[in-house]
Amino acid sequence: MNEPKLEIKLDFITGLREIVLNEISQYANLRVIKEEGDSFYLDFVQDLTEIKHLRSVSRAYIIAQNSKYNPLYISNHKSILNNFVEIIISGNRDKFKTFKITCAGSDSSEVRSIAEYIQRTYGLTKKEEADMKIHIIKLDGIWEIGIQITSRPLSFRDYKVKNISGAMDPTIAYAMNSLCELENANSYLNVFSGSATLLIEADQCFPNLKQLIGFDNNKKYISLAIQNIKKAGLIKKIQLKKKDVFDKPDLGKFDAITSDLPFGMSISKNEDLEKLYRCFVEYCEEILNHGGKLVVYTSEHEMLEKIILKSKFKIIKTLELKFMTSVNAYLRPKIFLCRLKP
Ligand SMILES: C[S@@+](CC[C@H](N)C(=O)[O-])C[C@H]1O[C@@H](n2cnc3c(N)ncnc32)[C@H](O)[C@@H]1O
């Protein structure tokens, strides 16, 4: 039996392709060999440290593809699994106590025998919400066997004190900040800061930023954001204020402004979204430095686009995203990168 040819697979949110490619290209050791849907496949690397640091990627796996790797074949050649399991548990044994196999026919005798093998060989317990996630799936006519590299998705961040609905996916926050080209910026404002995902991601990726300010009008979010900021160790660096955008708070001028605009359920019913968006855009016209970047994210993009087109801003680029929310509905938000017209 030949050793499996291992590769790295990276999954990302639909629409973030160029951001992910750009991030990967910053690591000389990482080489993309193919692309399928919203996944990149990379040459295998023994040291997974760089993979685990990728901030635009949702999930990372070690995989091997082969037309033979169906569940029956794997159950007859179970030692193939050792190649995967041993790499990810080496040095991380304490992080992996439970496992799950995702596979069509998961209650078949073949899959049951694979599960028993994992249980017996590695002392792991089978569980639905598992630390170790193994998959045996058929993609475009070829079988793929794989294992997720980390017990949590790569997009999980340690600074999140608790997960709230409406908080931005950190890979999207990373994408928005990288569009701002923050390596050349000093001052950063996040309007509608919520739980502070954008602010924390900005500082962690661009520690050169001298001034990071965020504001939100909701006391509950401000206090959650403070907890997240403290957990990230950034309480001395990030300033948070309780302000309402309708008051156009005077906080100075900024090289970059980012915003995850309220939309859908996250805004109170009485508020007129269009009025809020218009006020936000007018405010940004006044406080963005010339040459600075405004990056905005919303699902109500048609409304926002109309307002921007009538404003002093020029849209430089848009990214169209698509992903499933926790309640299994598709969201199709857009990111707008804008600059003030000369
Ligand atoms: C989509 S959420 C931002 C979520 C944030 N990016 C995160 O990761 O947690 C929008 C935020 O806008 C705030 N907001 C709504 N209306 C506002 C207003 N008039 N002035 C300031 N903040 C407002 C809400 O309290 C909410 O936290």
Characteristic terms for this protein:
2 domains, Rossmann fold, seven-stranded mixed beta sheet, binds S-adenosylmethionine, eight-stranded mixed beta sheet, 10 helices, alpha/beta
Structure description:
- The protein is elongated and about 70 Å long.
- The mean pLDDT is 94.
- The longest helix has 15 residues, at 273-287.
- It has two domains: 7-148, VC0802-like (2-Layer Sandwich); 170-340, Rossmann fold (3-Layer(aba) Sandwich), CATH 3.40.50.
- 29% of the residues lie in helices and 29% in strands.
- The strands form three sheets. An eight-stranded mixed sheet has the order 2-3-1-4-8-7-5-6, covered by helices on one side. Strands 11-10-9-12-13-17-14 form a seven-stranded mixed sheet, with helices on both faces. Strands 15-16 form a two-stranded antiparallel ribbon.
- α6 (170-179) packs across α7 (197-205) and α9 crosses α10.
- β5, α5 and β6 form a beta-alpha-beta unit.
- It is an alpha/beta fold and 342 residues long.
- It is built from ten helices and 17 strands.
- It has helices at residues 17-24, 49-53, 71-76, 80-89, 109-122, 170-179, 197-205, 219-231, 273-287, 301-309; strands at residues 7-11, 32-36, 39-43, 59-66, 98-103, 125-126, 132-139, 142-148, 187-191, 211-216, 238-242, 254-260, 288-298, 313-320, 323-324, 330-331, 334-340.
- Bound molecules: S-adenosylmethionine.
- S-adenosylmethionine is lined by residues 166-168, 192, 194-195, 197-198, 216-218, 221, 244-246, 260, 262, 266-267, 276.
